Structure formats: structure tokens, C-alpha cells
Amino acid sequence: MKTENGKDISALIADKPALLRAMRAGVREALRRHKLLGESIVVWKNGRVVEIPPEKIPVGPARRNGRRRKS
Q: Whole domain around residue 50: which residue ranges?
């Protein structure tokens, strides 16, 4: 099966480092967006559901090509 840009999906999934980078980038973007919009997030911590207010959402530095951007 091919993606819209012609890449083979099974090859993309087999590239685990690239897949993990994409997943981390997605999570980082979701956290950044919640913080920016002032929306809380909910996480599972120590067997309990915990709400984290936007001002306490941890957002790491943006990365480019899998490397941290220099500040």
C-alpha cells in the first residue's frame, strides 16, 4: 500500500527510528498546542488520572531532523 506521496507504508512502519521520531514530534506538537491554547491535558500517573493545567505542561524544545535546535 502506498501513501499519498507514493511511499510504501510498510517500509515507513519498518523504519522504527523514523516512526518514533514522528510519534514524538506529534506528541510534542499536541502538548505545545494545548499549552498555547490554555487547555489542560489529562495523563495516567501512578495508577490515577491526573489533570495537568496548561501552565505546567512540559514542552521540550522544537527539533529539526531529529536534533535539538540550538537556542
A: 1-55
